[in-house]
Design brief:
With 334 residues, the protein is an alpha+beta fold. Helices cover 53% and strands 14% of the residues. The protein contains twelve helices and eleven strands. The strands form three sheets. Strands 1-2-3-5-4 form a five-stranded antiparallel beta sheet, with no helix packed on it. Helix 7 crosses helix 9. The radius of gyration is 22 Å and the shape is globular.
Length: 334
């Protein structure tokens, strides 16, 4: 961030003692504690939503989270001469949650369950926000996998990675289509039971990017940051993302998954619908779609070796992943 961005801090009622560079941001030591100033890519409506959820979390009092500092004029965002938006938030210097430490992974899951107790707004507070649809997202991903498969089949000379990717497409695409169709049937049943077309009184939200680098340990304990990707979706979305990351690191060990699920449920029990939702999110081959998507939207003259490594690891872990799903979600998978 440049000096012009630092000048925007003059729009706040804060006494800045010194500033230092953070990761894509400016960390500000102030008379009232540590703050962070960074670019904001969302719109005004989204930052208002983010602020409401952070206030709910603060009211819940079970999880320490960032909060947004309004400017002197009351706005949550300030803009430079080019129209780029910036946000000022509370911050805590500390280290990220260690995914190699089982005890910290368990703490992260418990923290998430406590956070989810506060991630709910009335329909009026949510202001008619659209709710995320997993089945629509999966259908979009499936179209993209088909598109890349067709492109690779028609491509003449292929690099080794492209040969491997094409060779994996049929298996993972069939898997994606099967999961999508089964999930659509469950989702339809959920809607009928809840009353299709009936407006809900409350809407649940999730952090949207609950990963180890957004869970900080400092002098005051755990501190959750970066709610910019918050959205209206079942809280299971956050649990899925964290579980997938941790299980991929541990080669999909059932004992690890069960321990983490039990830790979450000690704080916030999962309903039957939650478990079905979680199963299908884990079952969908999202990692394969990510590899496909990254490949297709990047330059193809030179393909990083990292792409091949990720694909090989995904294929190598597939047997253990399916074993995990069958062991942990046996009733659903059957």
């Amino acid at each position: 961030m440049n000096d012009r961005a630092v000048e925007l801090l003059e729009q706040y009622d804060i006494e800045v003692i010194r500033t230092r560079k953070g990761r894509g941001a400016i960390v500000c030591d102030t008379a009232d504690g540590c703050l962070i100033f960074k670019e904001y890519s969302g719109n005004d409506k989204h930052v208002q939503l983010q602020n409401k959820l952070l206030q709910k979390a603060a009211e819940g009092g079970r999880v320490r989270t960032e909060s947004i500092i309004p400017a002197r004029e009351g706005g949550l965002l300030v803009r430079d001469g080019d129209g780029t938006a910036y946000i000022l938030k509370t911050w805590q210097d500390g280290r990220e949650c260690s995914i190699s430490e089982r005890s910290e992974c368990v703490q992260a899951v418990k923290l998430l369950a406590k956070l989810h107790e506060s991630m709910e707004l009335s329909a009026e507070e949510a202001e008619e926000i659209s709710v995320f649809s997993p089945e629509k997202e999966y259908e979009k991903h499936n179209r993209e996998i088909r598109k890349v498969k067709k492109y690779l089949k028609q491509k003449g000379q292929k690099q080794p990675f492209e040969v491997s990717l094409l060779g994996s497409c049929d298996y993972f695409l069939d898997q994606a289509l099967e999961v999508t169709e089964e999930w659509k049937q469950y989702a339809e049943a959920f809607r009928r039971r809840e009353g299709d077309g009936k407006k809900p009184e409350t809407i649940t939200f999730c952090h949207g990017d609950y990963q180890y680098h957004n869970i900080l340990m400092g002098p005051g304990g755990w501190f959750v940051v970066n709610f910019e990707k918050c959205l209206a979706d079942r809280p299971v979305r956050d649990l899925y993302l964290l579980l997938r990351k941790l299980l991929e690191k541990g080669n999909w060990q059932a004992a690890t998954g069960l321990e983490l699920l039990q830790a979450y449920e000690k704080e916030r029990p999962l309903s039957a619908e939650d478990r079905i939702d979680l199963y299908y999110r884990l079952a969908y081959p999202e990692k394969f779609w990510k590899i496909v998507n990254f490949y297709y939207n990047s330059g193809k003259a030179w393909i990083p070796g990292k792409n091949q490594e990720k694909l090989e690891k995904l294929i190598a872990q597939e047997k253990e992943k399916q074993k995990f799903l069958n062991q942990v979600f046996r009733d659903i998978a059957g």
